[in-house]
Specification:
The protein has 188 residues and is an alpha/beta fold. It is built from six helices and six strands, in the order αβββαααβααββ. Bound molecules: pyridoxal-5'-phosphate.
């Protein structure tokens, strides 16, 4: 079997019509497939869309780190210099009170982390999010997502979620003494 057949047989598909380009190299804004065809990448892997594919500084940093160590222990136990430096850089560019970073592997984990933090810190359980929002594919993120299309197959989801309307003053009435947080993703 060729790679395409193996892909269709052994990889879980996330859509009924996957793009299924067999990419063998990516550079800057370009993708190259196994047939030598070149594509201008207008979507971009989320992890590379701000630097382009294989930015030399990123490639060097990955290679340098691979020469030192990769995974060590569960999150937050060991002092790992690249992680510490990155957290410091983020803190320097955020308002003073946002001075502590919890790194995640994906957007949906960031959503889960935010929901858990809000509940734990406030002792409250209700979460308000917005209609038509997208927050990720795990159970908590699906629960606050404001689009039935994504979450319908996974009910029952988390209780205590209210979906407000964007740009409606009446949405403020949703906030009460039970509200742990309001989730809005302003930058993606
Ligand atoms: C607005 C928004 N929030 C959350 C996510 C979830 O991110 P991830 O796919 O990395 O879990 C996405 C992903 O597309 C997104 O567009």
């Amino acid at each position: 079997m060729n790679q395409r057949e193996l892909f269709l047989r052994h990889l879980a598909q996330t859509s009924s019509a996957p793009l299924a380009l067999e990419i063998i190299k990516a550079e800057g804004t370009l993708l190259y497939d196994s047939g030598g065809k070149q594509y201008l990448d207008l979507i971009g892997g989320i992890s590379v869309c701000n630097t382009g594919h294989r930015h030399p500084k990123v490639v060097k940093a990955i290679k340098d780190q691979a020469d030192q160590y990769l995974h060590l222990l569960v999150y937050g136990e060991f002092i790992q210099s690249p992680q510490v430096q990155y957290a410091q850089l983020l803190a320097e560019n955020l308002p003073p009170l946002l001075n502590c970073v919890y790194f995640t592997n994906s957007g949906t984990e960031a959503t889960e982390g935010a929901m858990k933090l809000a509940k734990r810190a406030s002792g409250r359980t209700q979460i308000i999010s917005f209609k038509s929002s997208y927050h990720g594919s795990t159970q908590g993120a699906l629960s606050i997502m404001g689009d039935e299309y994504w979450r319908n197959a996974f009910r029952p989801l988390l209780p205590g979620i209210l979906h407000a309307e964007f740009n409606a003053m009446s949405s403020l009435d949703f906030i009460s003494a039970s509200t742990a947080c309001v989730v809005v993703e302003t930058v993606i």
